[in-house]
Amino acid sequence: xxxxxxxLLSIINCQLAIATMLLLPSCNSDTSSKNAGRxxxxxxxxxxxxxxxxxxxxxxxxxxxxxxxxxxxxxxxGLPAPEPxxxxxxxxxxxxxxxxxxxxxxxxxxxxxxxxxxxxxxxxDLYAHPQTxxxxxxxxxxxxxxxxxxxxxxxxSTLLDAELTRERNLLRLRHSDAVFNQAKQQFGYTLLAxxxxxxxxxxxxxxxxxxxxxxxxxxxxxxTIPFAGGEFGAEAFIAVRDSVMKINIEGERQGQYMSxxxxxxxxxxxxxxxxxxxVARGLWxxxxxxxxxxxxxxxxxxxxxxxxxxxxxxxxxxEKKKRAYIxxxxxxxxxxxxxx
Length: 340
Description:
- This protein has 340 residues and is of the alpha+beta class.
- The protein has nine helices and twelve strands.
- It has a seven-stranded antiparallel beta sheet with strand order 6-7-8-12-11-10-9, with helices on both faces. A five-stranded mixed beta sheet has the order 2-1-3-5-4.
- Helix 4 packs parallel to helix 5 and helix 6 crosses helix 9.
């Protein structure tokens, strides 16, 4: 019996050692990791915006562990009700097996005396493709919590960028011909919208396309204004958006039109395919009606024609979660190409 117990302990220790080796970042470069994933021929099988968190569950219940949980549960800005960027699925490191290696997004936290300081490493396509893995390592829980807090923006933006890139790649395979053709014909630009967005209405330097399903409506707008230079901030954006939407998006009854809830607007910059863009997020509402929802707008500069170009996605989905919809639209408006 004693020998059998030692034998079982040896097997368990061996399994844990293998699991740890799989979890920790290797010395390979990102390119090597990508090639390994592609050689395996495995595609990711998790749902969009699912995140696998691999960390000691007992530690996650501590004050230090709760910091990491708060980081990965960061909420999407600009929505009418709080929603996290990701659906979190957490497992212990010992449970990290082939069953979980198909997740597209992972955060793997490891604490131990072998680390001299807190460090963050990113690997791509290690077990499957497309896949992004963020490793957080530190000598103790306090250091790991500090690392997670200090690098929160990097962690979330890395994972979100990976998801939006996947969605853009899917749009290249299947998208709305109606939106693509109208944007090309009217503006000389290309824009890839979800295939369900196929009803198009046009105005002066303005295009509005929407889906028409029973429980939600996804919308994309494309419009331009002349721009001679100078500063363009949140107040200017709201003024432009309100004037354009009042003319082009009216309600069913006279006096109803779309407007911007100015108090909710968040203005920022982002980088897409090497281009630095202005981003506005917030809530829209219909004057004279109870309709409303979130929007996200990207502002491009068409330098040869001295125009500001606005691509916007907005959602009408009452009593429904908005995360999947607003992310899908954000990926779509990121596909704009100012071709002529």
